[in-house]
Write the C-alpha cells for this entry.
Amino acid sequence: MAEITLESVQDPGIGVSMKTVVNAAELREVVAGWRRDNLRIALVPTMGALHAGHLSLVDAARRHADRVVVSIFVNPTQFGPEEDLDLYPRTPSEDARRLAETGCDLLFLPTPEVLYPPGHSVTVEPGTAAEGLEGEHRPGHFRGVATVVTLLFNLAQPDVAVFGRKDAQQLAVIEQLVRDLHLPITIVAGETVREDDGLAMSSRNRYLDAAERRAATVLWRSLSGAQRLIAAGERDADLVRARLLEVLTSEPLVRVDYVEVVDTQTFRPVLEITAPVVVPIAVFLGTTRLIDNLALAPASAE
C-alpha cells in the first residue's frame, strides 16, 4: 500500500485546525507538546470509511479531553485470510474533511509499515473475553485487535480512549486489556448510532445491495424482540436465543452466524438472566457479515 501523505488528504474546506501526521515520530512530537502544556488527550481508533457513528465517538472524546486524536488504520492483523481486507472501504480525503468539521485535533494516518515495521514479531494475546463469539468465528481476530490497540495506546499516550458499543465484545476485550495490564487509560463507551429503521451504522453497510439493505432491518427487529421479552420478565436465556433465531431466520436473505446471551464482562453464555447481559448477533447477507447487539437488564437488575 502506498504511503498516504498529508497533501493527499488535505482539502481547502478542511481549515487549519486539524493536523495530519503519517508516522510515529510526528505523532509523538505533537503529543509531547500537548503533554508539556498539561492537556488531557483522547484517542479514537478507527478503520476509516467514517459515518455518523464514528463521529459520535469523536464528540464523546471531545467531552472528556482537551485534545482529540483519531487514528485511521485498516489493520491487516485482525482480518482472516478469507475476509474483506482488500475490499474494505478506504476514503481518507472524505474522512479527513468530516473529522475536521467534527473537532478532531490530530489525524493519525499510518501505513502498515509504520505500525508493523520489518521484523515486527511481538503480538498481544487477548484475555478471556475474546474466547467465544467473534473470537471463535474469526480466529486470530482479537489478537490483531489487542496488538494494534496496544500499539496505538503506546504511540498516542492517551488519557482516554473511546470505543463504540456496537462492537461490544471488542469493547470488553479492550477493557480487560487495560485493566489487566494496568494501563493508565480510561475507556469510554460510545452508544450505537442507528439508521431510522434501526440498522446499526457500519462501514460494511455500503456493501449491501438494495434487497439486502431492506432485509438487514431484521437485525434490529430480532434485538427489539429480545428486549421486549426480557422487559416482560423472561429469564430463560435459551428461550431468548430461540426467539432471536426465529426472527432472523424468517428473513430468507439472512444466514445466521450466531445468536447469544452473554455476561457483560466475560462474554460467556448465561443460562438464566438474573443480571445485565449482552445479546450479540452476527449474520451474513450475501457475502456481507454484520454484527449488532443490545445490552439488556432484567427489571430487578435495572
Remarks:
- Strands lie at 19-21, 41-46, 67-72, 106-108, 160-164, 186-190, 254-259, 262-263, 277-285, 288-296.
